[in-house]
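All the exercises in this workshop are built on plain-text protein records. A record pairs a protein's sequence with a compact description of its fold. Read left to right, the backbone structure tokens trace the chain's path through space. Once this layout is familiar, the rest of the handout is easier to follow. Here is such a record, shown just as it appears in the course material:
>
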Amino acid sequence: MSVFTTVTADELRHWLRDYAVGELRDLQGISAGIENTNYFVTTTGGRYVLTLFEKLTPSELPFYLNLMAHLAGRGVPSACPVANRANQYLGQLNGKPAALVARLEGRDVSEPTAVQCAAVGAVMAKLHLAGQSYPAAMANPRGPQWWTAVLPEILPFLPAHEAALLQQEVALQNAARPPELPHGTIHADLFRDNVLFTGATVAGVIDFYFACTDALLYDIAIAVNDWCVDAEGQLDAVRARAFLDAYAAVRPFTPTEHGAWPMMLRAGALRFWVSRLYDFHLPRAGELTHAKDPGHFRRILELRISHKSTLPGLAP
């Protein structure tokens, strides 16, 4: 959500003529994140988020925008795109694919409680069930194939012990995932800053632009590695138990998922260690950009490896 592409108020006013959202009142760049350009937009008709897509192409974007509308229409508190006067979600602004999304109420939380973790677990399960009826599919753009492809670019920046760990874990994960795990549409980036709360209630799930078709358990692992950890990456057993039990109450886990859980927690940590290394060492030029600390997910991966025998299990 960094600002790579500048949009002026006059440019936006012209673009908004294709939308029935009223007159522009305010435009503010959003500085958090690293993938797309985002602005808060306020008009006489409401509050929105404008996204200009810096990497995704017009052919890829319908998967994400239609998914958001699909989920919102099935009771998942998803950010929902706004159609223009031609009934299309996707437009173009300043040479970039662009979309306008209704801005949800609520705020993200930096220190989630067990109750809030349970709420996220339940919403993720509902998202997974609603996603089963979504007809489109998208291979994971940052899955094992991508990890392998970018290794040669990343390794020269790492000390020997980190390079060895990274190579070993990528090779292990490429061979480890059981093919019979339940698959479907997943969010793939459900971190604390992508969920909005009002009190203990999830008011909205945002930023679906890493969504894809993959193992449901992988999505859970990514979320647990963020929602249920302390500052050092150590799992908090109470929060993890709350998340996993609430998820299982909506969609029970399969026996295969029980067996795959420890390795999937490692896969979730590896994915974000690799992507943060890539973004940190090979950044794009951009205004208001923020590369996040790769070391955080290296520590999480190391902890999942060293504490594999004491990880909280999935709910029965």
In short: Residues 114-310 form a domain with the Aminoglycoside 3'-phosphotransferase; Chain: A, domain 2 fold (CATH 3.90.1200.10).
